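Data card: per-record layout.
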Amino acid sequence: MIFKAVGDRRPYSDQVLQGIPWTAIPPRTVRLDQLTTTRAQLDLNTLLSEDSTFYGDLFAHVVAWRGELYLEDGLHRALRSALHGRSVIHVRILELGDDGTPLAPDGTVIR
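The structure for this 111-residue chain is written out next.
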């Protein structure tokens, strides 16, 4: 199995992610088998595209909430890594408090 689980929606509020400064979160690596997806479907054209990250962040976006890691953005990148035999991916991880409040890497609340 590539991912820990395949989900088809976010278990946290969509509004939590609005305005998050993802580029301020330092990237790190995680194992693919620790991630739960928030999308069950993908676009094969995007998966096979060589420049799919040209206009976006090079790192996948992951939300850590209630002890789980959710792959928020980067499903195609993660699958490409798996197809190339890699078991880890570089991601930016946004921590959410139990109440869904976004937390900065230092633990302060992001407003």
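Known properties of this structure: The chain has a mean pLDDT of 85. The helical segments are 44-48, 75-83.

See the next section for split statistics.
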